[in-house]
Amino acid sequence: MTNRGAVREYVNGSLWVWPGVSAVVALLVGLVLSGIDVAPGSPLAPLAFQGTADDARALLTIIAGTVVTVIALVLGLTVVALQLSSTQFSPRLLRKFLRDRANQVVLSVFVATFVYSAAGLYTVGLAAGTRVEQFPRLAVSGAIVLLFASMAMVVYFADHLAHSIQVDAIGARVEKDTLAVVHGRLGGVVEEPTPTPPAWAVPVPAARSGYLQTVRPDPLLVWARQHRLVIRLRVRVGEHVVAGTVLGWVWTVTPDLPAADPAVARSELDRAVRIGFERTLEQDAALGIRQLVDMACKALSPAVNDPYTAVQAVDHLSVIFCALAVRPLGDWVTADPGGAAVIVPGRRFGDYLATMCGLIRRYGSAEPTLSIALLHLLENCAAVLPADPARWSALGEQADLIVTDATRTIQQPADLAAVTAAGAALQHSIRGRLHR
């Protein structure tokens, strides 16, 4: 499916788009400045280049050659940062570095400077003696301005790169992006069970393989309202679907109505659903959770052996889960009073909790500090959790698993005592809320 959202997502995640745009803009600006004739005594005269055509040619040549070298350096450092992020934190974090607007701006300034200077050589001649003294002096001054801007970008890029690969900065950015998804849910969320496909439902196969990235229910609801249909997807946003397998079902509100045309249903779903080769954070809060879980698991691996980084990842997860704890979670439903509806399966609080706690608990059960951090996460959730027995039961289940795994793997009783004490306090609080 091709739409503005897909194009915007591609543009934001590409390193070449904005540098390409900056190159075109630099050519246009150079063309405009080349047409400005700076006469003696003009207010622009002090800004115009004061050297000869040969001086201008040498200057533009030096600027173009220098910027090419700087571009190679910047790209090399970017590749190093991507490799470090992939191996030490998570390969799913590479997209964040590609989407980093600061990196895109820096490359755009460098490319613009090179294109502007290289194109300017044609206005002053490529060899000595081939031009007279009449040349666009103001345009040459523009190249000097871009050179200073590029040098400033070098310093800024070095500072930004050093900060962007810090674990705190990575965790904070994932946390911020995930919270934006949590607070911007799709449609209305229904925590109660939603209708399942009846016997007369028409299965709709997926047109392509990949991950379900986004769903736009409004266009589907318009079509469903016209024919009094209920549309339900089989997979949740962020899950993988294989071409030819069932993507969803379409059925009429009552069995006596004419069934939906399978070809039309497939076309409508294909326009409203975007399937891509990778997961995105547009509507998938579980991806941000997965990124932080990956950071924790990588830190706990024997190759890295950095438990405190895992604890920091859990701290960021605590913020996300406290936001999830107070929000309705379940299937995303967009309905019409006449019975038409679009249902997108969603994750419950227990699903998110099991995804997060399960991997980290299994990898870090031998580290008391990490077990305590997980219990503190559950304790923070308990402090804001509404009166929902299902969510309180999910908290209690995960607390039991954490303490059980810690008891099985931690050898020293003194180390285990802090874990069991934190688990007992949490279980006491959970039992008190469940019996109210």
What's the layout of helices and strands?
Layout: H1 4-12, H2 17-34, H3 53-89, H4 94-98, H5 101-124, H6 137-164, H7 167-182, E1 188-190, E2 202-205, E3 210-215, H8 217-227, E4 229-233, E5 240-241, E6 246-252, H9 262-272, E7 273-276, H10 285-300, H11 307-325, E8 331-335, E9 341-344, H12 349-364, H13 368-384, H14 389-409, H15 413-434
Parallel strand pairs: 4-9
Antiparallel strand pairs: 1-8, 2-6, 3-5, 3-7, 4-6, 8-9
Helix pairs in contact: 2-5, 2-6, 3-5, 3-6, 5-6, 7-10, 7-11, 8-9, 10-11, 10-12, 11-12, 11-13, 12-13, 12-14, 13-14, 13-15, 14-15
Can you describe what's shown?
The protein has 436 residues and is of the alpha+beta class. It folds into 2 domains: 4-165, no CATH class; 173-310 and 328-347, Pyrimidine nucleoside phosphorylase-like, C-terminal domain (Aldehyde Oxidoreductase, domain 3, Alpha-Beta Complex), CATH 3.90.1170. Helices cover 62% and strands 9% of the residues. It is built from 15 helices and 9 strands. It has helices spanning 4-12, 17-34, 53-89, 94-98, 101-124, 137-164, 167-182, 217-227, 262-272, 285-300, 307-325, 349-364, 368-384, 389-409, 413-434; strands spanning 188-190, 202-205, 210-215, 229-233, 240-241, 246-252, 273-276, 331-335, 341-344. The strands form 2 sheets. Strands 1-8-9-4-6-2 form a 6-stranded mixed β-sheet, with helices on one face. β8 (331-335) and β9 form a beta hairpin. α8 (217-227) runs antiparallel to α9 (262-272) and α14 runs antiparallel to α15 (413-434).
